[in-house]
Amino acid sequence: MSFLPALLIGRLVRFLVRLVRPGGGSALPGLIVSKFAPSLVYKTLNSFKQGLVVITGTAGKSTTTKMAVAIVRAHGVDVFTNPSTANIEQGFFSTIVKTGDLFGRVPGDIAILEMDEGHAAALVTKVKPRISVILNVFDDQIDRFVDPALVRDKLKVVAEHTNDLVILNADDQNCRIIGQGIGKS
């Protein structure tokens, strides 16, 4: 499937928005491209030869992702990441529009992505992470959800769809619950 028309439109929108609002306009191109080429993000994220690493939880995602990316890059590995913390599906589309070529290919041997705790479950059903890092489920950080169990259930889906390794915070009670019965360590 050719993503060229959608990516051309996305690049044009990004250019036009930045003319009007310098430094802004990163979300709209991703939203538009997602409507024209909904499978682009899945194809792109499944294309890395060393796989996909997902970092998620209710707090600490950005810092942990930046540290992991820096460590991996220090070892000479080319990393695709979402440095603007655009951590939902629309943000991944925007990052692909910004950094990829007109065929949806982005540079990198591995993808290390921060993912929003409420959106990661839907994405990993179509893009299987090689490694997932689930940091925590803090009650005081969950302003979009009534019950931490809802977030815990979404993060358990992430763990269950991870191919190789799930890293859970053993100091977090909710992460320990997620770890029960997933068959990974």
Topology (elements, then pairings):
Elements: H1 4-20, H2 27-36, H3 40-45, E1 52-56, H4 61-74, E2 79-81, H5 89-99, E3 110-114, H6 120-124, E4 131-134, H7 148-160, E5 165-168, H8 173-179
Parallel strand pairs: 1-3, 1-4, 2-3, 4-5
Keywords:
8 helices, 45% helix, alpha/beta, 185 residues, five-stranded parallel sheet, single chain
Provide a concise account of the structure shown.
The protein is an alpha/beta fold. It is 45% helix and 11% strand. It contains 8 helices and 5 strands; from the N terminus they run αααβαβαβαβαβα.
Strand content: 5-15%
Given as residue ranges, the uncertain stretches (5+ residues, pLDDT < 50) are none
The run of helices and strands is HHHEHEHEHEHEH
Query: Quick one: overall form?
Result: globular
Distance between the termini: 37 Å
Biggest sheet: strands side by side, in what order?
2-3-1-4-5
Describe this structure in words.
The protein is an alpha/beta fold and 185 residues long. 45% of the residues lie in helices and 11% in strands. The chain has 8 helices and 5 strands; from the N terminus they run αααβαβαβαβαβα. The chain has helices spanning 4-20, 27-36, 40-45, 61-74, 89-99, 120-124, 148-160, 173-179; strands at residues 52-56, 79-81, 110-114, 131-134, 165-168. Strands 2-3-1-4-5 form a 5-stranded parallel sheet, with helices on both faces. Helix 5 (89-99) links the parallel strand 2 and strand 3 (110-114). Helix 1 runs antiparallel to helix 2 (27-36) and helix 2 packs across helix 5. The longest helix has 17 residues, at 4-20. It is globular and about 45 Å long. The N and C termini lie far apart (37 Å).
